[in-house]
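Lab meeting, action items carried over

1. Structure of the two-component assembly. Owner: GW. Status: complete.
Input record:
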Amino acid sequence: MMHIFSMKSKTKQMSISDIPDAPVLYLPLLQHIGQAAKPIVEVGEYVLKYQLIAEETRNLSANIHAPVSGTIKAIELHPLADGTLVETIVLQNDFRNEEITRPAIEVDNLTSDEILAIIKGAGIVGEGGAQFPTFVKYNLLGKKIDTFIVNGTECEPYLTADYALMRDKTEELFRGILLINKVLQAREIVLSIEKQNKELLDIFSPFLSQSEYKNIRVAILPNQYPQGGELQLIKSVTGKELARGVLPKDEGLMVSNVGTIHAVYNALVESKPLTERIITVSGEQSKKSGNYQVKIGTPISHVLEYQNLTNTLDDKQLVLGGPMMGKNVVETSAPIIKGSSGVLFFKKKEIKRNNCISCGYCVDVCPMKLMPLVFAENYRTGKIASLEKYSLNSCIECAACEYICPSDVPLMESIKEGKIKLNALLTHAN
Amino acid sequence: MQTDSKTIYTPFVRAKDSVWEVMSDVLLALIPCAVISYFAYGEAPLFVMFVAVISAMVGEFIFAGIFLKKWNTLLDGSAIVTAILLAFTLAPFTPWYVVAFGSAMAVIFGKILWGGLGRNMFNPALVGREFMTVFFPLVMTSRTIWYNKDYVNFQDLNIFNFLGNGGFTEYMNSIFFKPSGAIGEYSVLLLVLGGLYLLLRRRISWHIPFGLLVTFFILLQIFAFKDIKFSLGGILLGTLFMATDMPSSASTKMGKLYYGAMIGLVAMLCLLNDVKYEYMSYSILLVNGFVIPINWVFKPKVWGENINLKERVGAGVLLTIGIVATTYALVYLHHFDLVRYLIFAYILIVIGRFSFSKQLH
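Predicted assembly:
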């Protein structure tokens, strides 16, 4: 792991505020790992806020709800930020916010199965970026959880959405943790934060001193990137080094992002499905930086408009997510989805690639203890099979290697494209 | 709707660093030693450095342009570093045309024909030096290039005299300035300071110098009964600035330790076998040739995976046997004056490789 410049001070002090709702929302049927949801509304139909509009299908999928009331304009292919076309429900906002009648839930009397059913119904997926359906993750199938790690280590530069959530919605977060632990029954709950955010302890301590929260302890971890990566976090908290591909659940561990927990709280206590999230808007070109609560489905162009920035990509680099692992935005009409943690505006830069000088910095910073320089060299020279010998598939694509590289070697391109070629080769060989 | 066709990969932020910054740190670390050489032999060593730099830059510009179709490689600063390092290994009165030849060869055969900066297997400065030895054997072995009484500036610079009279003062004075040996070897103290600067700037890691010096000096103790003569300045110049050259050295922490240790071992084997002057360049170049297997054998333990210790140790033993055997072969060639054929073979291989490998162009 490595030290990385934080750039969080731009937005850290800002409380969570709202961006006015967009006139048209784009709700991709695939905002999660797995299979696309199936639309249950028709074009022209009027829907209410929080109404279920697409249903999860059998294999790893998640429900999708209307974030506002309005008319279904279309169900068509629409790009995600990276340009991938996905079947998308287009919702015309009527700005009346007419809600469905939300059932009152007696939270304290819920059984574990009922909690899971509500999480499933609310369409919750991991908000840290992986977008894994949460009800599948929490369904233990008889496994026992020792440690439940609440991931508040937001290690990407610029992002402060999780920080703002922990600071402004502390009670909801703590209640959410306990509700989830009714399912997980973890012996120990660890809320992890970074050292640069240790002032959160002052906000947490009134809760920590209450008897109902006595199982929760706060771990203050070093400001390292990628400290918030699931495997690195598990190692820092428990000392266990899990190989990539091992399910934490099988080792008695569960890691959840604070944003996901907040969504669970909303579903259980407020009976609101996942239709909005907190994002950080920042970056060197950003004019109104801050932590914003936005409706899922809000097109990035709407954020541009709110920033008084032109709706063009010619002069800027837009990123959906963090600057290390986020997505390059190639379509400004693409929406903010359930796993988007930020919208960042950078200057467009031409990167001059040089030869690798074998300085080994990438080897030093690789959190997975790989040799990124070898990936670049073997990819360049077409030695795809030998990528396997250097465990390419263990790479978590955190991009620390290319961040530190003084030659700006195209390491991430070699890794991402190399994985595709290698896995094609491996499938072919079998 | 806006579309951008070229795929852009993560990350979107980068550390502020560049090859130029790496090279300028090395240059900064070398400047004090370059300055002190003036106190030894006046303009002569400065002239050697000047000729080396000009020749390397001209060679780089022309040949990188022609062979690699890159006309801006001078901007990375590596040609200057190579030239200064080469000059540091030379005698202060080496004729200018020999210096110019060596410096150009260092850049062309040490770097460009390998595919440019970073792709070279051997330390370019030392490659240049070997070319000089092979193509100008009489000049390079003559005594006159090492001393010229008309140019002696200072025999000593006793800046530590304020410490009073005594052995310690004398010792400090001698490690600060001693006008003997090659251009870069006049000040042990300034070499160490340069090395410390590079360590602090993380341009070198401690692993290579540590492995090298520990091995070398332990072996020196073991063979204390033999009268081994070596230049401390030469060892330090090689250890801190040549063995740590990024492209030609190992890339993993354990690999660096082993790589350093092997250079220490090979250098000692050379000294024990009567290789009087070339021990440092031989040892570094020889172990440079083993960097690929060293990186493989000493690759880090992948997160969450188990390490096959037995297999690794076996491979390490085999590697060491290979390095020692190669050392003895080299010593044999050296004593029969056959090293030049190695250089001829090197020239053929490098040219052949460049001509037939498409990836280098």
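2. GW to write a short summary for the group page. Key points so far: The CA atoms of residues 164 and 170 of chain B lie 9 Å apart. Chain B has one domain: 20-360.
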